[in-house]
Amino acid sequence: MMNADRNFDDITGKFSKNIYGTTKGKIREVIVWQDIENILNRWPSHQKLTILDAGGGQGQIAYKLAALGHDVTMCDISQQMLDIAKHNAESAGLSLHYYHCSIQQLAQCVDHPFDIVICHAVLEWVNDPQHVLATLKAHLKPNGYLSLMFYNYHGLLFRTVTLGNFGYVQAGLTKRKKKTLSPDYPRMPNDVYQWLNDLNFTITQKTGIRVFHDYLIDKQKQQTRFDELLEMEKQFCRQEPYIHLARYIHITAKL
């Protein structure tokens, strides 16, 4: 399974430049963090939680949680991603637990459950998402919370049509090149909801990540009017129909 799923060692630098350091990355960070704070508020403010960031990439969320005093564990299939995460955390004087493994191999590294399990932007890169979700459940305590974000098929389809790439739509949105930042397996939201239901999760929140940003005709306004755009994202991201037009969907689910 580890070899079949996407490893980003070959394009680690692109993440910093093309995702984390952009307006779309800033929107994603702000909106997702709002949802994570809502999860954290389920416990007393002084309680130290055990948190797993599965497929945690460069660790932006993991070390924010560690800075709040929580016990944070990260795993990732990419050693380069983990190295960056560790460097950034140590530079901030933070201590986390790191494991270089796929999510499917977690049981070989970790033998205890967590209060919160985070898995962002992973489902769209794996060829057996249901196995991944089952593995995440196995590492979650009863009454624990899952923070799950995935690349939305509907958002990709809508964006593709608005760009006039009709051939790509007619080809079923199938990628020609695998070594890119465009996800291999965009997910149908109803499929993900059903998979979670089958695992006895209760979905408590759905949030659209970038419901407007990517559709702006004047791309300069992504930067020049960013503050206004962010406020609109915050206002509409948890309302229909905007949730299901977003480029990503973030789900909060309770076990």
Automatic annotation (TrEMBL):
Signal peptide: none annotated. The keyword Zinc does not apply. It holds the Pfam family Methyltransf_11. Keywords: Methyltransferase, S-adenosyl-L-methionine, Transferase, tRNA processing. It catalyses: 5-carboxymethoxyuridine(34) in tRNA + S-adenosyl-L-methionine = 5-methoxycarbonylmethoxyuridine(34) in tRNA + S-adenosyl-L-homocysteine. Residues 52-147 form the Methyltransferase type domain. CDD domains: AdoMet_MTases (cd02440). Catalyzes the methylation of 5-carboxymethoxyuridine (cmo5U) to form 5-methoxycarbonylmethoxyuridine (mcmo5U) at position 34 in tRNAs. This is tRNA 5-carboxymethoxyuridine methyltransferase. It comes from Orbus sasakiae. The gene is cmoM.
